[in-house]
Structures are given as C-alpha cells and as structure tokens.
Design brief:
The structure is a homodimer. By secondary structure, chain A is of the alpha/beta class. Helices cover 40% and strands 15% of the residues of chain A. At the A-B interface, helix 1, helix 5, strand 7, strand 8 and helix 8 of A face helix 1, helix 5, strand 7, strand 8 and helix 8 of B.
C-alpha cells in the first residue's frame, strides 16, 4: 500500500466509488468491471483501475471486482469501519442544516453535539435531537462524547478562536465552512469548504459557453 | 487563450488567486511575484505560473505581476465583471443559511429569490430581505429577475423535479447540494457539492495519521 502517494482527489474518488458499490450491492450485483461501473456512474474506467491499484490487487482480469469485497476494502481504507463522532461549532442556520444533513448521520458518522454562545440555544436540541451545549463546555463534552471530527460554522471573526479551542480539546480533523484562512498546528487536518469557489466555477462556465462543461469529480 | 484545456481545478485555483490579489490590493501592494504570493498564501509558485500561463503573459520576469491588472484579468476570465443573479430552491435551514452566506452576496453575485412549496414560508423574506416565492412561479420570477445561477437545497426525493423546472426556466448553471445524482441536458452545467465526501476525506486522514496531510486546494 503506497499510501504516501495518495492525493486528496484520490481519496475523494474512493468515497464516490464506495457509494457506487453500495448502490450495486443493494441492487444485488455481485461483480462489476471497471468499465461497467464507469458507464453506469459516469466515471472514468482507467482512473478507477489506477486509483484502486494504489491499494493492492482487487480485481480479477476478465471478471472484474467483487462488489462486496471491494466495498469492504474501501470502507476500511477510508477509516469508515469504525464510527466517527462529530460535533458542530455554531448552531445557526448552516450548523443546524448540517446537523440534520443525511450524509453527516449515516454509516461511519454520528452527529453528537452542537456548540454555541447564544443562551437561548444552549440547553435545547435540534429537530433531530442533537443537544446544543455552551461552547465553554467544548473540551469536557468532546472528551466525554469521544468526538473526533469537528465542523466549524461560526462567523469568520471568531472562527480562529473556535479552531484554537478545538485543537486544545484534542480534535485532529476539522471541516471549516467559515470563509477565512485559519491556522492549525501540524498533525491536525483542517479542510475548508469554500462555496464561493463553486459559484465562481459556474460563473466561468457561463462566460465560456463554448467550453464543454469541464469534468466534475465523478458523481 | 487555450480555454479548451482548462480544468475545473484550474478555474477553482484562479478563484483562490483572485481572492489573494484582492487582499494584497487592500493592503496597498502593487506588484507581487509568484514566489511571494505562494509564500504568503501557502500556494505553489510553479502552479501559479502554470495556471496563469494558460491565459496569456501577465507577469514581467524579475518584477512579478501587477496586482490590480492581474486581479482585473482574473475577474474577467471568471466572468465576474458582470454580476450574476442567484436563486435558491428550498428555503429550509440550508437554503436560508446560503441565502445569507457572505460569499453568495459579494462582488459578482447577488441573491435575489428563494423558492419553496411551504405556504407558511411563501410571501415572507429571509432576515436579509430576500423574498421567498411559491416554486410554481419559478419560471416567471427567473425571467423577470434575470436569474442565471440556481442553488438546489431541496430534499433528494424532489431534487430531479426541481432541476427539470430550472432547466425549463432557462437556467444554465446549477449548484446542487442534494445528495443524489441528477440529470441535465447538455449545455447546462450542474455542479454538485458533496459534503459527505469531505467528511470521508477527514476520516481517511484520521485512519492514516502517518500520511502527511494531503494538499488541499490552496486556501
């Protein structure tokens, strides 16, 4: 396993492949070739073979991949064989929307806490029953609830302060939605979701209609 | 201009460069080298030079780029010199959060309408004053308000129906947050934001702590 060569784009594609395999499995499909998978899900078959080759020999030439075995392998590679426990800092519209977002409450992930500074919100729960705590209690709750991934949806002005609190609480992986550059110590993975970049990419496409729609991450 | 070669990753980096240049401009910096820009904003200087070379000769060897000129060029390349008008379909927590999101209401973008089917929401406005319309009025409002980009935040079950309505209303660029694969006719750009993929990438990192944090899109 040549893990040192794996780029973020590769791991993101592995996520997509896993989702496709789960759909095939639900539909009773037992084996699939990279070509059939590529056709059904609008992927690139050479890319599939290359991405999977990083992690070993999964397929059988002329037969394809065992759907359930490959799904198990990808689940393990992505660290989804043990469940991650998430918290969200910032119980505004975005924080609440994410707390209820299907993808954040499915196999592999469980949303266990929100944090805020608003006395009106503290002590209540979201519609789906996730408790909202005072951000002053971040560290004890993170420790008690075994939270290992934090999502930051606070305003930009306070985002660095919140990230510092998360690092001090021992969190090693952070997904940041605040449109601001944040610093973390080495050994902590900070990933930013920049929604304006997505819009600007659409703007580029509208301004260059002669350019065929560039390839997205496979869906 | 070799626009046929431009990948989505390149245009996303151009967005990032533009943001960096705007910061430099606000700080009174008039020229910057790719190396200085890379150092200050944690980017890759060779990548900056390569990305910009697609669009012509901007820099002067030994001097660097004119901050304001390069910002103007990137603004034009990204189609941000004319303002885009956005609508959101789905006025739930996520739709409301995005309607108020800074990046969706800044230079280049203006949020002008939300659509929903909930009679309690129709006829009201968001906190920031964006009107919420009946989705039955999608086409006339899109035409009247000159909307050219739509954001989809409805539940997965109805997302395809809403995208079909948007296409019928003449929308050419769609940003989809529903965790489902959607079909559009050719000539329409559909971009998906898949937040679960982001989480799974963090999960991979947590499972492989020996792997140094893979490079994100430059922040």
């Amino acid at each position: 396993m040549k893990s040192e060569k794996i780029s973020e784009l590769t791991t993101k594609r592995l996520s997509i492949y896993l989702r496709c395999l789960q759909i095939l499995d639900r539909n009773g499909i037992q084996t699939v070739s990279s070509r059939a998978m590529a056709e059904q899900f609008h992927l690139n078959s050479a890319q599939i073979r290359k991405d999977l080759a990083y992690f070993g020999e999964f397929g059988v030439r002329g037969v394809g991949y065992s759907v359930s075995h490959l799904a198990q392998h990808l689940t393990k590679i992505l660290g989804l064989d043990s469940r991650h426990r998430l918290c969200i800092c910032g119980a505004g519209n975005l924080g609440r929307a994410l707390a209820e977002y299907g993808g954040f409450n499915s196999e592999g992930f469980q949303m266990v806490a929100l944090f805020d500074t608003d006395a009106k919100k503290i002590g209540t729960t979201t519609r789906t029953g996730v408790p909202i705590y005072d951000i002053k209690k971040l560290k004890p709750i993170v420790v008690k609830e075994n939270v290992d991934i934090a999502v930051v949806t606070v305003p930009s002005e306070v985002a660095q302060k919140v990230v510092d609190l998360l690092c001090a609480a021992g969190i090693k992986a952070i997904l940041n939605f605040a449109p601001v550059h944040l610093r973390v110590n080495s050994g902590i993975k900070l990933q930013k979701v920049d929604l304006k970049v997505e819009l600007e990419n659409l703007s580029y496409y509208l301004s260059n209609p002669s350019v065929s729609a560039p390839a997205n991450l496979p869906e």
